[in-house]
Write a structure and sequence with these properties.
Length: about 260
């Protein structure tokens, strides 16, 4: 069993997205999804790396037609357990690097909300994006989530006191970019890395969003807020999550692309 399967077999991914900090990422992403689908009658939706179905199942239960592709069998089992058989969803095991079983230009919306977290070479990232672009209709949207470098340096390297061991293991470049490999589970990027990938494809960027913003920096504070204050925090976050001077320090970003 590989590092990725080990990680997700022992992780409650739903709980992460249901926590107050995780809710912000989820709510922000859902706002973007609904915006992309606005005005499209009977949209065809693809989620690659669907995980346990937090997004795919939600959309399918609203009556939207969804194809959910997931690599980790455990996650796929959890996703299927949430279905009662009436939802218009097809859930299959598959790899973001090879979607050959799906047709060209078949989907109005293609979501990669997890695969880029776990692809460690530029070649693999480009392959996943190539497949996503291929299966999306011209004019359709592609949503790509990334884990960001600076949040890890700030929170893990310094905030958790791991800077010494990271330097000892040669896990940081001279310009403070984290080096990732499969056993580290997550691949970390900067905004310029994302832009460099986008430049290889016939797409236009609509926006790059800080899906959780400062939420992970303020976990304890968010958990202690009364509901009224928390709602004000959400208002602040939604008003500022597209500010490019804040995006790079978010834990997660969402690259919103349209296929030309």
């Amino acid at each position: 069993m590989n590092y990725l399967e080990d990680f997700y077999n022992s992780r409650d991914e739903d709980a992460r997205l249901l926590s107050r900090a995780g809710q912000i990422e989820y709510l922000t992403t859902m706002r973007v999804i609904r915006s992309c689908l606005s005005g499209i009658a009977n949209p065809a939706i693809l989620e690659v790396g669907a995980g346990t179905g937090r997004y795919s199942v939600t959309l399918a239960k609203e009556g939207l037609c969804v194809t959910a592709v997931e690599l980790v069998e455990h996650n796929l089992d959890v996703l299927r357990s949430k279905l009662d058989g009436t939802e218009p969803i097809t859930a299959v095991r598959g790899n973001a690097l090879d979607l050959g079983f799906l047709p060209d230009s078949g989907f109005d919306l293609c979501m990669l909300l997890g695969p880029m977290y776990h692809l460690y070479t530029r070649e693999d990232k480009l392959r996943a994006l190539f497949e996503a672009v291929r299966v999306t209709k011209p004019g359709g949207y592609i949503l790509v989530a990334y884990c960001m470098n600076e949040a890890t340096v700030i929170q893990y390297a310094f905030g958790s006191g791991q800077i010494g061991q990271l330097l000892e293991r040669d896990m940081l470049t001279p310009d403070w970019h984290c080096k990732s490999e499969p056993k580290e589970v997550f691949e970390l990027v900067r905004t310029e890395d994302i832009a460099s990938l986008d430049a290889e494809f016939p797409v236009e960027r609509i926006k790059l969003i800080a899906t959780d913003g400062a939420a992970h920096y303020l976990r304890a504070l968010l958990d202690a807020m009364d509901e009224e204050t928390y709602q004000k925090w959400l208002e602040y976050h939604f008003a500022t999550c597209e500010r490019q001077d804040l995006v790079g320090a978010s834990n997660h970003t969402l690259d919103v692309l349209r296929k030309l």
